[in-house]
């Protein structure tokens, strides 16, 4: 690991993490991030599963319920930006614990909501925690992952989100029938509370974050002894990193980061606009097309499960191809094609579920891998800020998408017409990433040449 060795030949934190086998410490940190992602996905998607039942009980229109979806996402936009910046100032670990507990607490509040207005407020507050978790868990997972499998590991963390949504669909159908919609929120409260408690003794702080401060060398060495015990005491911490300007959004628009920041922000906006419109309204689209409620919920499950399958392929490619942005651009192009085919599908549940599975493979699969790709673009000192910023911009799209979906449905747009309109953001996202890939001659090469500074 030549690029991660100090001038005197002593190893850096990066060199030791990259050269050593993956340790129990790293596995524990990554598994905890995966579990947090699962619960984030469950809590985010839970509102879509209970929407028909709440709408019927409280006489809430589809357009009004679109604002409940977007209240969650507005909270996540703010949470992602604020907690992302905080991550580069006070560390990732404590914010992961706080945000996990936070969305669990407000899920309990949703279970106790007495009216539509309370539900709206509690979903917004829970969204702060859901959004704030993302940049912190992605940064910590990326910083404990060896470079050779970094994209794959970060994508595994992101798999938790659709897996949580799939789990939510499987659990919600019988739970709704037997215990009502409030039981789903109670489940979404208990699990994060237990996980947050488990994180207190088990979750380590990011080694790469700690290594930015020479005063924390003892902590760094202590953690490194659990990864590479034979060389931990010789580790060199690059003191000049701690002397740089305080992390802030303005630093994302310096010469080497400005273009990737802008293009990734646009791409995530378009991708999350479409993804959240689909995952929130697919059950409604399917019931309007004549399918049963159980088939409609399975449609949402198929869409999210497809995302898990697709991201496995895309993450494998990100660790291997010379221009990852071009691979992702191809994925979004395929997503546009599959969505167009879905709009032409017949009324058969099997056909609908198969096409939705393939939409998930390309759209959500590329979406998850695009998010993983962002962790490789920003240096450690700005990683939380960078991920938080592009996620905040992206989640603005996820906020608008469900509202636009509800508006289109309230205006009488048919399900197949809504799907045809969905081709537009997928295609534009692919074009934006095609531009980024063309501008970066060899992303693996450029990343390798700047790896010491960035990681």
UniProtKB/TrEMBL annotation:
Q: What is this protein called?
A: MFS transporter
Q: Where in the cell is it found?
A: Membrane
- Cross-referenced InterPro entries: MFS, MFS_dom, MFS_trans_sf, Sugar_transporter_CS
MF annotations from Gene Ontology: carboxylic acid transmembrane transporter activity
Keywords, A to Z? Membrane, Transmembrane, Transmembrane helix
Domain of life, per UniProt, equals: Bacteria
Keyword presence, Transmembrane helix:
yes
At the highest ranks, the source species' classification is: Bacteria, Pseudomonadati, Pseudomonadota, Alphaproteobacteria, Sphingomonadales
Record-level GO cellular component terms:
plasma membrane
Q: Which residues cross the membrane?
A: 65-83, 95-114, 120-139, 151-171, 183-202, 257-279, 291-314, 326-344, 350-380, 392-413, 419-439
Q: Which Gene3D superfamilies match?
A: MFS general substrate transporter like domains (1.20.1250.20)
Record SUPFAM superfamilies = MFS general substrate transporter
What organism is listed for this UniProt entry? Rhizorhabdus wittichii
Record membrane topology: Multi-pass membrane protein
In terms of one coarse class, where is the protein primarily found?
membrane
- According to the entry, every stretch annotated as the Major facilitator superfamily (MFS) profile domain falls at 29-444
């Amino acid at each position: 690991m030549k690029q991660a060795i100090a001038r005197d030949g002593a190893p850096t934190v990066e060199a030791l993490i990259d050269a050593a086998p993956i340790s129990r410490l790293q596995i524990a940190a990554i598994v905890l991030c995966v579990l947090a992602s699962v619960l984030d996905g469950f809590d985010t998607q839970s509102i879509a599963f209970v929407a028909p039942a709440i709408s019927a009980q409280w006489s809430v229109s589809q357009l009004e319920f679109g604002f409940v979806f977007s209240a969650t996402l507005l909270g996540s936009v703010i949470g992602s930006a604020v907690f992302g910046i905080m991550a580069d100032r006070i560390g990732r670990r404590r914010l992961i614990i706080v945000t996990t507990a936070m969305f669990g607490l407000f899920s309990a509040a949703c279970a106790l909501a007495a009216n539509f207005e309370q539900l709206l407020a509690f979903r917004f507050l829970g969204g702060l925690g859901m959004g704030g978790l993302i940049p912190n868990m992605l940064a910590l997972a990326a910083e404990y992952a060896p470079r050779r499998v970094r994209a794959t590991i970060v994508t595994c963390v992101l798999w938790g989100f659709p897996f949580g949504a799939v789990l939510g669909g499987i659990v919600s159908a019988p739970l709704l029938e037997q215990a009502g919609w409030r039981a789903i929120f109670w489940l979404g409260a208990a699990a994060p509370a237990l996980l947050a408690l488990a994180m207190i003794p088990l979750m380590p702080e990011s080694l790469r974050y700690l290594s930015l401060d020479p005063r924390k060398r003892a902590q760094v060495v202590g953690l490194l002894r659990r990864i590479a015990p034979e060389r931990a005491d010789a580790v060199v911490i690059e003191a000049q990193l701690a002397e740089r300007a305080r992390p802030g959004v303005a630093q994302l628009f310096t010469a080497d980061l400005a273009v990737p920041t802008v293009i990734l922000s646009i791409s995530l906006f378009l991708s999350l606009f479409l993804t959240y419109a689909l995952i929130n309204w697919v059950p409604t689209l399917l019931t309007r097309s004549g399918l049963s409620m159980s088939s409609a919920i399975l449609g949402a499950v198929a869409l999210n499960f497809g995302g898990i399958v697709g991201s496995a392929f895309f993450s494998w490619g990100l660790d291997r191809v010379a221009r990852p942005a071009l691979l992702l651009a191809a994925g979004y192009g395929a997503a546009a094609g599959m969505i167009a085919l879905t709009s032409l599908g017949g009324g058969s549940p099997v056909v609908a579920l198969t096409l939705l599975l393939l939409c998930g493979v390309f759209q959500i699969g590329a979406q998850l891998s695009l998010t993983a790709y962002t962790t490789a673009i920003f240096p450690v000192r700005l990683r939380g800020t960078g991920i938080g910023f592009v996620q905040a911009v992206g989640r603005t799209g996820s906020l608008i998408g469900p509202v636009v979906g509800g508006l289109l449905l309230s205006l009488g747009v048919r399900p197949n017409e809504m799907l045809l309109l969905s081709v537009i953001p997928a295609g534009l996202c692919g074009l934006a990433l095609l531009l980024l890939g063309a501008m970066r001659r060899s992303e693996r090469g450029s990343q390798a040449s700047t790896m010491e500074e960035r990681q």
